Amino acid sequence: MQGDAPLVRRALSDVSRETTVVAAPRRERGDTPIARAAEVALEVRGVGSKKSWPRPERCRVVTIANQKGGVGKTTSAVNLAAGLAMHGSRVLVVDLDPQGNASTALGIEHRQSVTSVYNALVEDVPLRDVATSVEGFEGLHCVPATIELAGAEIELVSLVARESRLKRALDAYDQTELDYILIDCPPSLGLLTVNALVAADEVLIPIQCEYYALEGLGQLLKNVELVQSHLNPGLRISTIMLTMYDGRTRLASQVADEVRSHFDTLVLDTVIPRSVRVSEAPSYGQSVMTYDPGSTGALAYMEAAREMAYRGAAQ
Ligand SMILES: Nc1ncnc2c1ncn2[C@@H]1O[C@H](COP(=O)(O)OP(=O)(O)OP(=O)(O)O)[C@@H](O)[C@H]1O
Ligand SMILES: [Mg+2]
Predict the structure, then answer these.
(1) What is the CATH number assigned to the segment(s) 2-9+55-314?
(2) Partner of 98 for a Cys bridge, out of 40, 150, 236, 302, CB 3.0 to 4.6 A?
(3) Distance (Å, whole) CA 294 – CA 275
(4) Which residues line ligand 1 (CB under 6 A)?
């Protein structure tokens, strides 16, 4: 089946792998998917003990990027952050998209008058003054984005060190207080996304399991390589996440197979299914973890967050 739909090969034909990717360890032996699913289901329902996951030695700055719109960047940022925070990590979500969807989904005010990531990037307001704690979670904070940020793409052009404004702002934040910073990017490869790539250690790429989601992926990988070679040599693609998987379609499984054959162990074992509850949660200003903890979407995001935590610990 793999041979008759070379989707990824076509999309990625001119991208070299070695420069951007690193192998991630496979899940530990004896930890079966069914046993894990049962454990997670009990945990999110509040039955059974909630384990703390390993926390990284130093804060992991993870940029969630894909210039294709609507592939699950924001949904992943918000729900991974929630899952990690629920297991003892201290997490900061930086909303770097003028749409402000991550702010909405975390119930954070982002009217135009609110001090936001825009003020941090353009006016050097300390990020600490902009970060707001997320209700219902200990250790989860969000730096909101307002529509003003739309102008930042242009305003940044004339500023000194325009590509590293976010890095500078994050460096000034006391990162010993944090385990993860997750940066939610807009659907473009402009200066905001470049700022996110320059500020990060890792890139997480959500890929929607449908054909068009792969288009433009080569361009994103090239941009990562450019940032690596000129601005941030430590940057690496650490995680690929398959989102909105619809098990009823053959295309979804073809895309998943080909993404796995190309990116190998970078792809999380957990696949996020298409789930109505996931799409409903933001309208209540909530992650799906709190909106419907027992839903398939919440369970999958929890499991994905766990993989992220354990893979990071193993590296
Ligand atoms: N697993 C899922 N099941 C069902 N709907 C989903 C799922 N993941 C995301 N969605 C919905 O798909 C839409 C796009 O998701 P999301 O906003 O996370 O993508 P995005 O990549 O951040 O988009 P943009 O590029 O506009 O920032 C949203 O309406 C969201 O609620
Ligand atoms: Mg988004």
Answers:
(1) 3.40.50.300
(2) 150
(3) 12
(4) 69-75, 97, 99, 101, 187, 243-244, 272, 274-275, 278-279, 282, 297
